[in-house]
Amino acid sequence: MGVCKCQGCCCWCCGSQRTSLFQPNGWTICLVGLGLLSLVAAIALWAFLPSLYIKLLYSQLVLSGPDETGQLPKRTYLWSHAPVDTFMHFHIVRELGPFVVRVIDTKKEVDFKNSGEKVHYKNYRTFVFDEEKSCAECRYDTVLTIPNLVTTAALAQLNNNFIEVPFGELMFDGYVDALLSAAHLPIVSLLSNMLNNGSSVIPFPLPDAPTMALFNGYNNSNDMDYLIDTGLQNIELIGQIYDWAGFGNMLPEQWWGTPAARMINGSDSGSFQAPGSIDQSSTLPLLEFRVPIDHYDTNLAENVGFRYSNPEAVNYFPDWPNCPASSTSSSPNCNVLGLDCSLSANFCNKCCNGSFVGGTYVLPPGFSLLSAIQLTVRIDTYRIKQKHYSTLPTIAFPPHFAYSPAEVYESVDGLKPDLELHTPMSYHYEPVTGSPLSINVRFQTSLPIYRNHRSVLPGQLPNKLLPLFYVDTKTSLKPFAYDQLYLGVVIVPQVLFVAKIVTSLLVAVFIVGGVACQCLWPHPRSIGSAVYDERFTTVNSARF
Question: What are the coiled-coil residue ranges (predicted)?
Answer without folding.
Answer: none
